[in-house]
Write a sequence for this structure.
């Protein structure tokens, strides 16, 4: 499968990937970055298209909808189709447009994109890594992890919009928790708390880096964050 074909399929459905696509992503860092770009763009579009609706406005809209005439309804659906076509057109140029979008992208949005990118592999992350292997990667950030009751089942470097960061997955009693170690010299807007329909996360400012924790289980996030702050140390 060539690069053009893998990108076309990622644009069509970036969440349900076949085995050959997953294999191609692992082999090609550029395709991995493109996948993360598409997921980050999708997260931002969902947030832009799903703002909270005030109760008074919702009632007014329902009343207006009740009084619509047939021609008004037809015009509404025509506009909706036109809007959907515009979104599809923009998605076709996602790689170029994302450069503009990232100008205001937050740390939380980028973190969620990374989590969704790795989601197909998480169910296979069951083997605990040795503490020495994990600390060998943490050393690049002047950090180390002491003995912990939670096993690290994944540790690899990743790209946070041009900033070399570390992606960890920790197994807690409540489920998996993703941890990102991101240098403070990054170009993303800091976001203390963030969430979407599935995941929620928090960003913690430490002395030398930003720790981002993400999980789909609130208890895992709470307990895992406490344990992480106790066992992760940065050099003075």
């Amino acid at each position: 499968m060539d690069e053009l074909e893998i990108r076309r399929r990622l644009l069509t459905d970036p969440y349900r990937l076949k085995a050959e696509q997953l294999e191609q992503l692992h082999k090609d860092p550029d395709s991995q970055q493109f996948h993360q770009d598409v997921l980050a763009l999708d997260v931002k579009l969902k947030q832009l298209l799903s703002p909270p609706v005030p109760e008074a406005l919702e009632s007014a809209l329902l009343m207006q909808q009740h009084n619509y005439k047939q021609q008004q309804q037809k015009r509404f659906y025509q506009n909706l189709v036109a809007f959907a076509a515009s979104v599809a057109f923009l998605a076709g140029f996602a790689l170029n447009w994302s450069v503009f979008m990232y100008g205001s992208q937050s740390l939380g949005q980028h973190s969620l994109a990374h989590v969704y990118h790795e989601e197909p592999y998480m169910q296979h992350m069951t083997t605990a890594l040795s503490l020495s292997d994990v600390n060998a990667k943490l050393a690049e950030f002047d950090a180390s992890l002491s003995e912990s009751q939670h096993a690290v089942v994944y540790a690899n470097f990743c790209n946070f919009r041009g900033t070399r960061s570390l992606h960890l997955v920790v197994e807690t009693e409540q489920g998996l928790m993703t941890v990102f170690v991101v240098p403070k010299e990054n170009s993303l807007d800091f976001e203390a708390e963030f969430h979407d329909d599935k995941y929620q996360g928090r960003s913690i400012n430490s002395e030398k880096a930003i720790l981002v924790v993400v999980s789909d289980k609130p208890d895992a996030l709470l307990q895992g964050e406490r344990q992480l702050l106790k066992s992760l140390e940065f050099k003075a």
